Amino acid sequence: MVTQFAMDLFNDPFFIGFNRDLARLNSAHQTNSHSYPPYDIFKLDEDTYRLSIAVAGFTKDNIDVSVDNGTVVIKGEITEVVDAEVVHKGIASRKFARSFALGEYMEVTGADLKDGMLNISIDRIIPEDKKPKTIKIK
Known about the structure:
Layout: H1 4-10, H2 18-31, E1 39-45, E2 48-54, E3 63-68, E4 71-76, E5 96-101, E6 106-114, E7 117-124
Antiparallel strand pairs: 1-2, 2-7, 3-4, 4-5, 6-7
């Protein structure tokens, strides 16, 4: 959770427009306060990340991955009805929604589902006009 000090700091008039980003980060943190489904975040290099979410029992048709306003949102719901008596239910298949705030220039570049793991690729893609450039002296 974002501390009250941080909220007060970014509400200072010096930080123009940061209050929206702070509210988005605080909202993403509050939505992720639960632990299902479990996930890992891997930093593969300086600009490449992988978000891995354990989704045993879900198929790609049961999962929706979207990006909205700088936040990656993963939703899952199994609607299949089993026509057998369940003796023991140990694999969770309940509906879920998880969201993760993305930093500046971070983009979801792909997603795949293999062996019960949803792997989402996230890359920092800096636009050409934002990259450092050398000015030639005449």
